[in-house]
C-alpha cells in the first residue's frame, strides 16, 4: 500500500508539474486543438493534480489511517474518465485522448479501491471497539 501511494504521488506530481510548466504541449496531449485562452486556469488543473500527489505521499505514511484522502483521489480517478469520455462523445475533444485514461486513472482503481476498503474496515472496527 505504501509503495502504491508513493508511486501514485510521484506520478501525479510529475504530471501536474508538466501541465504547469508546459501548458500548451500538455493541452495538446489532452486532445485540445489549441491551448485554453486562460492558461492560468489550465495550469490550475496542474496544481490540483500536484495537490492530489502530495496527498498520496502523505497517505503513504499510514495508508489505513489516511484512507479518506485516498478515497477522494479514487473519486477523482473515477469521475475524471467519466468527464473525459463525455467530452469525447460530445465531440469536444479527440478520441485520441482516451489513451490517457489507463495511464493516469484506470491503473489506480484497484489498488486505491483496496486501500479505501481496508482503511474503512479498520476505522469501522476501531469504532465498534470504542463502543
How is this structure best described in words?
With 131 residues, this protein is mainly α. The chain has one domain. Helices cover 79% and strands 0% of the residues. The chain contains five helices and no strands. Helix 1 packs across helix 5 (100-130) and helix 3 runs antiparallel to helix 4 (67-89). It starts with a helix and ends with a helix.
Order of helices and strands: HHHHH
What number of structural domains do the residues give?
1
Helix content: over 70%
Number of helices: 5
For the biggest sheet, the summary is: none
Write down the overall geometry.
elongated
The separation of the N and C termini measures: 29 Å
Number of strands: 0
SS-based class: mainly alpha
Arithmetic mean of pLDDT: 92
List the helices and strands and how they pair.
Elements: H1 2-21, H2 23-29, H3 39-60, H4 67-89, H5 100-130
Main attributes of the structure:
about 130 residues; mainly alpha; elongated
Summary?
The protein is mainly alpha-helical and about 130 residues long. The chain is built from five helices and no strands.
